[in-house]
Specification:
Order of helices and strands of chain A: HHHHHHH
Oligomer: homodimer
Distance between the termini of chain A: 52 Å
Largest interface: A-B, 15 and 15 residues
Largest sheet of chain A: none
Strand content of chain A: under 5%
Helix content of chain A: over 70%
Structural class of chain A: mainly alpha
Chain lengths: 160, 160
């Protein structure tokens, strides 16, 4: 693979990953989120944007490493599941911040966590570095799942 | 396989699973646990023993179904990992209630959850019913992981 195509590919995977983040960010926290009872271990709001930016860049690099080594057809289960987890990732923001449904968002984030785990294993088989860059993402979504669960249980009642 | 040997096998797997629970129960909640700050969604203490008893029975049935169909040598990765998750399960009680280390217990329970997920997949391949009976266990340990995390974060400071 030529260097130019490799570099273009990196840009493409980064843009794709960051685009999922951008779609999710269209459903921003607002008055509803402010009104929720939070667990004591809820991180400060300012933490989320920089953490997510780093994670989208890392996952884009991971997908690029796999694509560069095996091509889309050579690693299609891994890369298709990678695209699916991007969809689950953006869907979470819609369910939680858009629909105000922490219950549905929790189901989504559990499916997302399992998808990331499988993607990390499949990426690792192609290139251990591609698997390794998925691990901070896996850890963060695990934490976010617990946070989502706590927010759901601390705020019972109908969606508003 | 004769009926007698099949029935003995069921008893064996049930005893093994319940034994892991019994070992764990040697490290019972006491004054230290009572003193912990709890999240609002902490279940009543009376819930845990009946839930765990049902889960140990279900997992014993699952392992028995796989063992009956494939034998130990025919499903050794699944059954070895099943034994390993029993160890991680008992270890959790020791780390949490014995050592008063919610931090180490959290690492253990995350590993336990991943092990149960893999066991459920491997069991499902042998017999879908064996995979299905692992799902309540998977869900409960997922919930317990979040609870462990919340108890860790709500109670910072050195182990006592």
């Amino acid at each position: 693979m030529g260097t130019a195509r490799g570099t273009l590919g990196l840009l493409g995977w980064l843009v794709l990953s960051l685009a999922a983040g951008w779609v999710g960010s269209r459903f921003a926290p607002g008055a509803w989120y402010e009104s929720l009872a939070k667990p004591a271990w809820n991180p400060p709001a300012a933490v989320f944007a920089p953490v997510w930016t780093v994670l989208y860049v890392l996952m884009g690099v991971g997908a690029w490493l796999v694509w560069r080594r095996a091509g889309f057809s050579g690693a299609s289960p891994a890369l298709v599941l990678f695209l699916a987890q991007l969809g689950l990732n953006a869907l979470w923001s819609f369910l939680f911040f858009g629909l105000h449904r922490p219950d549905l968002a929790f189901l989504d984030i559990v499916a997302l966590w399992i998808a990331i785990l499988i993607v990390a294993v499949l990426f690792w088989r192609e290139d251990w570095r591609a698997g390794a860059v998925m691990l901070p993402y896996l850890a963060w979504v695990g934490f976010a799942s617990c946070l989502n669960f706590a927010l759901w249980r601390l705020n019972p009642g109908p969606a508003v």
